[in-house]
Amino acid sequence: MYPVKILLVDDEIPFVKTLTKRLSRRELNIITAFSGQEALAQLKKDPDIEIIVLDIKMPGMNGLRTLEEIKRDYPLVEVIILTGHSTVDSAIRGMRLGAFDYLVKPCDIDQLISRMQEATEKKRRLDEKWPD
Amino acid sequence: MAADKHYKSLMKSMFLIGVVVPLIPMVLVSGIILYQSRVSYKKEIRAHLEEVIQKSTEHIDRFLEDKLADISMMADTFNFQQLTDEFFLVEMLNRLQKHYGHVFSDLEVIDDEGVRVAYAGPHKSENPRHLKTDWYREAMSTGYVISHMPSGLADIPFIIIAVRKNKMEKDWVLRTGIDRDVFSRVVKETVTGRGGSAFIIDRDGQYQVGSIHHIDHGERSLMDFLGITEGARDIFMVQRTDGSGHKNIYVTGFLKGGDWALVYYQRASEAFSGLIKTEMIALTVILIVGLLIVANTLSLSKKMLRRIQQADKEKQKRSEQMFQTGKLASIGELAAGIAHEINNPVAIMVEEAGWIDDLLEEEEFQESKNLGEFRRALRQIRTQGERCKEITHKLLSFARKTDSRIETIRLNELIEDMVTISAKRARFSGIIINMEIKKDLPPIEVSPTELQQVLLNLINNALDAMEKKGGILSISARLEEDHVVIEVSDDGVGIPEDNISQIFDPFFTTKPVGKGTGLGLSICYGIIKKLGGEISVRSVIDKGSTFCIRLPLKGSGKNNVEEASRILNSQQ
Ligand SMILES: [Mg+2]
Predict the structure, then answer these.
(1) I want to staple B139 with a disulfide (CB 3.0 to 4.6 A). Which of B145, B400, B484, B563 is the partner?
(2) What ipTM was reported for this prediction?
(3) Run of H or E residues at B119
(4) What is the DSSP string of B278-329?
(5) Cα(B19)–Cα(B474) distance, integer angstroms
(6) A interface mutation test: which of B341, B343, B351 has the most A CBs within 10 A?
(7) A72 within some domain
């Protein structure tokens, strides 16, 4: 089943590009999107996406609304919030909307990867429970 | 100075209004009442005196008429022969004197020539001829007389009463003398008990009887002074100031068919003493009440002024405070704005550094002699990026601290949310979170963002304390009377005893430099105090720490910031 397919969503283009390079170097399969709409489009196109790393403060459709739509249409996809916007409120709302975890930028890459692994494990456990 | 002047004029107008408003109606009403009572009292006194004089004149008239009747009856009862017998006449006088006392001083029988025929009394030796005297002529013409005091003969000690009788075509006259002292006493008796004096004068102003000594009528004639006019018949009263400067009242009534005037006089101060006394009492009371009003108003306005000054001061202080909190709130907003934006560029820098670090793995760089330095510099960038994150976190805490809207919240949800946020980090450090929250906790009134911050702070501290070895984080909440008690316990490193007393002081920290500003627990302390609660700590080295928060169900939240920001908004 590995490697896992990860969608990286953030409006900060240099951040996405560099992080993509770093994660790809660690043999992770990364797809990118620079807005909420784009992320939803990617999801529609590619049903193999298992993990989404999502920014909150984005122009247009913000992260929380994107998360809401993702959880409505693809409840089994795990979402990790990674944002510079570190208010307790948005963290709470993210967690309530079903995010797997909430990380604040700048974030250690090893920590990010370990959360991705945990999220993947959880997802795969659930997939086994409810096979399509 | 301007304020002083303002307060002074305020005090002045308060005082004036306080005095004038009650005094004007008081003076008006009491003045009207006093005037009315004076008028009616004087009227009453006048009526009373007039009645007394009326009775006196009647009494004196009756007295004289009685005596005339006595003589007349004697003259009718006994004939001329009998009465000219001097023994009989003396006997008659004795009988009269026995009956009436010394009212009658003598008896005399006079023939039609005016010659004394018989006499009984003390002036026997004289042998007067009466032909030319007024009283004799009047008696002969009208049949009787009650004589005036003859002018120039004031030493005659009696009033003459005479009747004319007829004996065989020849007239004769029976005369008697009324003792002047006795008559004087009769006059006096009529006015006794009133304090004044009385006298009788005739139409010409000639003194007849009574006490006239105190009358100093100066250059005016007595009649003019007393206001007696030619045809006057009715009782009247005048008030005059006599020569010695005393105010007297004079009441005049007429008797003897208008021939005589009875004058009663009295000091005005004596006659109206009741009125004067009443007026004095009333004026004294008015004066005292006036003084009381003045004193009371003075003290009241002073008190009021002090209150106003105090209120002004407090208002000024409040508005200063409001301004301060308003400033704090806008700084908070600014801080939040910076904090929201700064992490993104920092994250990019840290990622770029990380990418260089990744690239240094490549073989071509392994030979570089500065590889160690590169690695160290990149690590430093990562560390400083973490530090930035820490700072923005603090900034946001500060911004949140300025958002202190009080709401009614469910504590269970709030604690669960905080645990959810921290759960991943706890699991990462091998920490188990144990929750013991009573399901039936009532809703409490707090600022949710502030309480969230406090709990997150305590949870993060607990996680820090157990980071190395893992452990159990216990969070409990229960109801104790009207307080909710929340406890956050860890079994981590604990706090040294020396530090416990300063743990809530600002800038006290045990974390390494760059790890914490030390503001966390002091902010918690401030928030809990502001919410009207208590925060305390128990700790044992290597056994762990327990932070305990007691919050009242009904918040005593002082909501300065909200008010301040409302004012700020309204000014925009
Ligand atoms: Mg963004």
Answers:
(1) B145
(2) 0.90
(3) strand B116-120
(4) HHHHHHHHHHHHHHHHHHHHHHHHHHHHHHHHHHHHHHHHHHHHHHHHHHHH
(5) 72
(6) B351
(7) yes
Going from the Cα of A51 to the center of ligand 1, the distance in angstroms, rounded, reads 19
Among A57, A105, A97, A56, which residue's Cα sits nearest to residue A78?
Answer: A97
Q: Residue A29: give its domain's CATH number.
A: 3.40.50.2300
Q: For residues A8 and B371, give the distance between their C-alpha atoms in angstroms, rounded to a whole number.
A: 31
Residues B17-69: tens digit of each pLDDT: 888 888 888 889 988 998 998 899 889 988 988 888 888 899 989 998 998 99
Of the partner residues A19, A89, A105, the one whose CB lies closest to the CB of residue B343: A105
Residues on chain B bordering chain A, Cβ-to-Cβ distance under 8 angstroms: 336, 339-344, 346-352, 354-355, 358, 382, 385-386, 388-389, 392-393, 396, 400, 417, 420-421, 424, 428, 449, 452-453, 456
Going by their DSSP bridges, the two strands B247-255 and B170-179 should be labelled as unpaired
Domain assignment of residue A120, yes or no: yes
What pLDDT band is residue B559 in, cutting at 50, 70 and 90?
Answer: very low
For residue A31, the distance in angstroms to the closest alpha carbon of chain B comes to 17
What number of helices (H) and strands (E) belong to chain A?
A: 5, 5
A68-77, B54-63, B129-138, B176-185: the lowest-pLDDT one: B129-138
**Domain that includes residue A110, residue range:** 5-127
| Pairwise CA distance, residues B446 & B410, whole Å | 10
User: Total structural domains in chain A?
Assistant: 1
Residue of A nearest to B350 (CA): A106
Share of chain A above pLDDT 70, in %: 94
DSSP assignment of B253-276, as one string? EEEGGGTEEEEEEEEHHHHTHHHH
Burial of A101 (0-12, 13-18, 19+ CB in 10 A): buried
Question: Confidence band (pLDDT; 50, 70, 90) for B103?
Answer: confident
What's the pLDDT tens digit per position in B345-381? 999 999 999 999 999 988 888 888 888 899 999 999 9
Supply the DSSP symbol for B234. S
Measure CA B442 to chain center: 52
Q: What is the pLDDT of residue B10?
A: 87
Contacts of A104 in chain B (CB under 8 A): 343, 389, 393
**How would you label B167-192 residue by residue, b for 16+ Cβ within 10 Å and e otherwise?**
eeeeebbbbbbbbbebbbebbeebbe
Searching chain B, which residue's CA lies closest to the CA of residue A100?
B424
What chain B holds in terms of domains, given with CATH numbers, is 48-273 (3.30.450.20), 406-571 (3.30.565.10)
Query: B411-428 vs A109-129: helix axis angle to the nearest 10?
Result: 110
